[in-house]
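Entry for the shared binder. Reason: the reviewer on the internal report wants the predicted structure included alongside the sequence.
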Amino acid sequence: MRRATSVSRVIVIGAALALGATFVAEAQTPLTITLSGPNQFSASATTFGEAWEEMVASFQKVNPAITFKTTVLPIPTFGQTLSTQLQAGSAPELIFNQVAYKSSQVVALNKYLNEPNPYAPEFKRWIDVFDPNGFNEVQQDTQGNWNWVPFNLVSAGLFINEDAFAKAGVKLPLATWQDWRAAMPKLKAAGYAPLAMDNFEVGIIWTFRAIGDQLMDKYYARWNTFKSDGTPGTAKQLNFKAYTRVLKSGTNIAKLPEMTATLQLMKEVFGNVTPNWSGIKPTTGAAVNIKDFLGGKAAMAWGINFAVSEVLDTKPGFKISSSGWPTITRATTPTSSGAPARFGLAPGGTSYMIPATTTGDKLSAAINFLQFITSPKYNQPWLTASAGASAIKGVKAIPAISGFGEGRWGESPRVQVDRLGYLSPQSQKEFIQIMQGYLLGSSNLADTQNALQASWVKAAEYQLSQNPEWKSEAWAK
């Protein structure tokens, strides 16, 4: 076997090693690639954890010419940091995908996804490696491009302190909102905040989604007018173009009866959370005020599968289980659509993309890493150790987070109402600010609805500015 004389060849050789070759190449031109994103696994500011470091070591073992570095960004500011770097053309080779960006700023992965993944020869194409329930056409942008790939999926729900419920005399599960409503005063009387909360924005966003998707589900068929690529048709979930069309039609989404009920039920939830929650800083991106939950002060806590390692390692001294949120029936509100509570297994976990400024050998190395970590052989040990929800066929999640994906709760919501808050970078900031004011009592319901609608209408115009081809369609004029 000839000695490799370029970094590109070393990348190919690294893939061969992954498939069982026994030779080792010595590169004359080694390179370094950097991955940058928030720590979803712990409070550490320097590492994603032992499991990640072991996976990186495996990658470098089969790709000895590539030095791989990880930059851990603070959770509150990672989005602004990466967006600024993208705009300036200074972003590293691999960046976390939950950041405001334009399609032109990142590498479209369609070409690569339709070619084989050398680390997974059992699949004809790289795209075939992924579980289609969590990674499909819904994840394409309006140009039909896949701009990132998931290393795992995310499942979310409630961590449950079963001892707290037993002490309060409340039977689990809380299947309906009426069950939830009856449990709140009993949990308080037993000395617990029913739901842990801090000022991490996902506490608001996830609650909005859990409630709003149920009540707003009745609009799915009416508003579902575009495929994920933007052409006329239907999609599995309402997309940005569908919401833009609804807002341009003059529909006041914020004042629909179902949205009104959503906001009212959110106010009810936040009347039963940790006192002074808005002044509590988050300590992890994997759960909401997990500190108070593990300290025995709260009966429930929002969390995702990534938080289970911290939960299990802490050994808090009470029995912990997990579940979805309760279903809202007509016994609670006449606006109930009859849809179940759903959150689903979906991207939103660990997913990365490549800035368009990454070219040549560094682009090849970045693609190589994405293929490596999304192959069953190398994904399984990392997923097991990090307690992720699998994005890869044949890779199994650990049983401790089963309640986050069981039954109807594990199905993907169709309306995905929280997308309204992501129509533009500005609307994302405004949504949190508006909702905090409402939930803290500094803004009433009517003013909150007016502010939300104004923000969403402005965000729809932003979508049109980013997708000028839409302006030729009758609804956009």
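Summary line for the report: The chain is about 35% helix and 10% strand.
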